[in-house]
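job 3f2a | input accepted
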Amino acid sequence: MQNCIYYDKEKNFFKYKNNPLFLDETLNKLFFFLTEHQGDYILLEDVNLLFSNADTHESYITINKRRDKAIKDLVFKLSVLLSKDEKDIVLKRKNKDDKRIIEVKLAKNIVKFI
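job 3f2a | predicted structure (114 res):
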């Protein structure tokens, strides 16, 4: 068995070593979002949609801080769980057309679908 997390599409949950993987709601939404787009770089701005609340008028900076903290927490937890270096969990790059834009993706072999 490879050292990775499995996602059960039918039951809609993650498991590791045949045990459910429990993450808080925010980290679970982020992990699910990155898993859905696994293999593709996505704009970091698109991840902001997970952290914005339509009921409140939060600033862009507040949303970015919440997003960055969630990504950092998720990467740390997965790094410890999978015994991988943090830089090998979520990959980042600058957009080829506009170097100011950051793109992210979940590295290969982090999540497998069952």
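job 3f2a | The CA atoms of residues 43 and 98 lie 12 Å apart.
job 3f2a | closed
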